[in-house]
Amino acid sequence: MTENRDTPQGLAYALAAYGIWGFLPLYMKLLDHISPAEVVAHRIIWSVPIAGALLILLGRTGDIRTALRTPKMLAMGCITASLITVNWGLFIWAIISNHALDAALGYYINPLFSVFLAAVLLGERLNPLQWAAIALAAIAVLILTIDNGTVPWVALTLTFTWGFYAFFKKSLPIGPNQGFLLEVLVLTPPALCFIVWLAATGENHFANSNAINTWLLLGTGVITAVPLLLYANGAKLLKLSTMGILQYIAPTTIMLIGVFVFEEPFGRAQMIAFPMIWLALILYTTVMFRQLRANRRTQPLV
Known about the structure:
Mean pLDDT: 85
Number of strands: 0
């Protein structure tokens, strides 16, 4: 069982993953003429060789064979695969439909949901400064939600799918790299069937007259597999509550891209909420780094 504490290596993995995800809308906007379902299918298919090559280099392919023959592990892989598929599809739709701010709102709410899961299901205990950070973030999210004026179904769906994905991913009884490959292998048959159907109906954008489409769809494997593998490794080496707070990095970047690049409206509510969210981040990460230093001091010298 993975020890439930924060590590410097886990922090580095998580920061890299969330940084890539933050700039992902720029790539997805290049695919706004392709349906989200087709983009998701290619994300799945082209992630397989990347994840597979990594496991071959690590000599851990036997773990996948074991997982595929173990009903409980395979069922857990199907659950996480289903959750991430819905999350991917809705995120792509939000970006290409000029709802980047809604996507950002969803990922702002999600860390709070992750902390809720950590406290209720894992029994993690937070100190007063951490609770103050969560309270600030909660108020900021509430301001953004009220300003939206309607039930934020896009944001809530992104929140629940990613939050439960993180929770089940942490409890998947195989390594993070193996778990990701298991997920995309589970998803590959339906993804291939969908691509074949698109080709048969003449609606596919891969390997057609436009070479740019082909290269962009091939690239979805890289921008999918690399951050997810980084995230999976980070999730195993950090507390779920820490992973939840670090997720503010991605939505902040997405929000800024939505406003300054995609020119989506940015009103007074956002001007109030953003400083509150960043203050929450500063408070929580200050505590986290103190804990990291304390852990290093208490570790015995070998």
